[in-house]
Amino acid sequence: MTVVAISKQKGLDVERVRADFPVLNQKISGHPLVYLDNGASTQKPSHVIDTIKYFYEHDNSNVHRGIHTLSQRATDRFEGARKTVQHFINAESEAEIIFTSGTTESINLVAHSFVRSSFAAGDEVLISAMEHHSNIVPWQLLEQQIGLKLKVIPINDKGELIYEEFEKLLSEKTKLLAITQLSNALGTITPLKKMIDAAHAVGAKVLVDGAQAIAHAEVDVQALDCDFYAFSGHKIFSPTGVGVLYGKRALLDAMPPYKGGGDMIKVVSFSGTEFNELPYKFEAGTPNIAGVVGLAAGLDYVSEIGINVIAEYEHELLEYATEKMLAIEGLRIIGTAAEKASIISFEIDGIHASDLGTLLDSQGVAIRVGHHCAMPVMEFFGVSATTRASLAFYNNKADIDALVAAVNKAVSMLR
Ligand code: PMP
After folding, report:
1. Is domain 6-41+306-414 annotated with CATH 3.40.50.2300?
2. Which of 41, 42, 99, 103 to mutate to test the pocket of ligand 1 (most atoms within 8 A of CB)?
3. What is the average per-residue pLDDT within 350-358?
4. Which residues are catalytic?
5. Residues 326-354: what's their mean pLDDT?
6. Quick check: CB of 103 below 6 Å from ligand 1?
7. Of 208, 298, 365, 415, which has fewest CB within 10 angstroms of its CB?
8. pLDDT exceeds 90 at position 2
9. What pLDDT is attached to residue 347?
């Protein structure tokens, strides 16, 4: 890999980073692309694209199945990727890394294996009011199916979780805290370690939705002491259709399989089937092999640059962007938490978000408009949609200036 985009002393060399992302080098409607929709999905560096291409050209085969050379190579790369993930999030063992299709599947795995098999009617699951739908709906389904009780930690006008309310909701009935580390709609960073410790103190387990945080902050699952951690490859410069569920080994060991099929068994017989060991017990069927290989390449790329170098750079860029955006007349930022990362959600007086989004696109600026799969957040702030600019470490100040200019132009056309 030729990642030369940093000097640990000097911080991040964003121009060199940008050269690693071929998709950025294009025009949209005659304007240079300004990609500010990283919260929805991130772009892929050449290292990831080349790794996937190489895999299909040289090593492609099914995994864990054949004795032929290609199958062994594919298996080695697949299992090597598991080690890469293990080290990236500092899990104790590679057996604790389950490959899934993404955060959504990882959360559903916990819901339908861990929760469904061990929770009783009346047991409580605690989430926050700023969760993505994928960390709300699985619990609502289980409310209907097994009678668990879903409780919601409120947020304040800045979009911060109200910690005292969380403490009030915690009780011996709380069996699971399922909480985002970084809100995709607001950019709020939650006080995770404190919450995990408090949840453990009442005997609850903790599932962290790391979909947004994984690309913006160092994640150490042992230091956090979370019981489960979920994330998606596509949010961290890696392919779509692949994700991870980390779980503490003792919990995963005790959990029943979530899907049945090939690879998750040791022996199948009509008189009884014996399940495979971890992590294979949870990986039924042919996995997204090239996706997993690509994920390892994406994580290697990020590690080479350094997640803390990235976080520091993005923090400065967010401050720059916030100041510039606030100078736009009639613009209100939704989500002004003291602890924030990578996201600016906003609305502008008298202007519909989708009209704004269309006009920004016509100037080459890609942002997202809508409810961001967090409708309760929109309801709380009394809006049906926001416009969201979400940053990655390949964005630069010129991108922010282009966004501001495009918004000003759109506003003058719409008013
Ligand atoms: N949680 C959060 C906070 C997210 O931002 C997203 C994706 N927008 C998800 C969960 C779901 O991720 P995926 O669609 O990759 O499963």
Report:
1. no
2. 103
3. 95
4. 373
5. 96
6. yes
7. 415
8. no
9. 96
For residue 1, name the pLDDT band (cuts at 50, 70, 90): low
pLDDT-derived band at 66, boundaries 50, 70, 90: confident
Average pLDDT for the chain: 96
Write down the domain spans for the chain: 6-41+306-414, 49-303
Residue owning the nearest CA to atom 5 of ligand 1: 184
What percentage of the chain has pLDDT greater than the value 90?
Answer: 96
The pTM assigned to this predicted structure is: 0.97
Q: What is the CATH number of domain 49-303?
A: 3.40.640.10
Answer yes or no: is the C-beta of 177 below 6 A from any ligand 1 atom: no
Tell me, letter by letter, the H, E, C secondary structure of the chain.
CCCCCEECCCEECHHHHHHCCHHHCCEECCEECEECECCCCCCCCHHHHHHHHHHHHHHCCCCCCCCCHHHHHHHHHHHHHHHHHHHHHCCCCHHHEEEECCHHHHHHHHHHHHHHHHCCCCCEEEEECCCCHHHCHHHHHHHHHHCCEEEEECECCCCCECHHHHHHHCCCCEEEEEEECECCCCCEECCHHHHHHHHHHCCCEEEEECCCHHHCCCCCHHHHCCCEEEEEHHHHCCCCCCEEEEECHHHHHHCCCCCCCCCCEEECCCCCCEECCCCHHHCCCCCCHHHHHHHHHHHHHHHHHCHHHHHHHHHHHHHHHHHHHHCCCCEEEECCCCCECCEEEEEECCECHHHHHHHHHCCCEECEEECCCCHHHHHHHCCCCEEEEECCCCCCHHHHHHHHHHHHHHHHHHC
